[in-house]
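Batch job 17 of 40 flagged for manual review because the log was empty.
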Amino acid sequence: MIKNSSNPPLDSPSLHACAHRAINHHLNPPSTPRSADDGQGLFAVREGLDAETLLVNASEDLASVHALASHLAFEIDGNPRSVALGICRMLEGIQLMVDKTLNLKDKPVHR
């Protein structure tokens, strides 16, 4: 099939300007960090929560995601099943770290 128009030149000034904007966007983020209420995030964590509350909620969320991934792993076969089981293993490791952190609250820190 013959095209009526030629391909746009790959060495155009507008292409270079677009590429520079994309690179700067990803490699040179703004110097001021975004706040949770800047309208850019979907979720936010309420200020003033203690570490134990945050860790307990993280632990519950990990357990929920683990249940979802486990259920999925037994509904599918092949490589996708292996991926789901790998996610389950990773979640178990993260759960162990969260649980260990919760248990450290009661123990004194040795320096």
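Reviewer: the log was empty due to a logging misconfiguration, but the result itself is present. Residues 67 and 88 are 8 Å apart (CA to CA). Unflagging and moving on to job 18.
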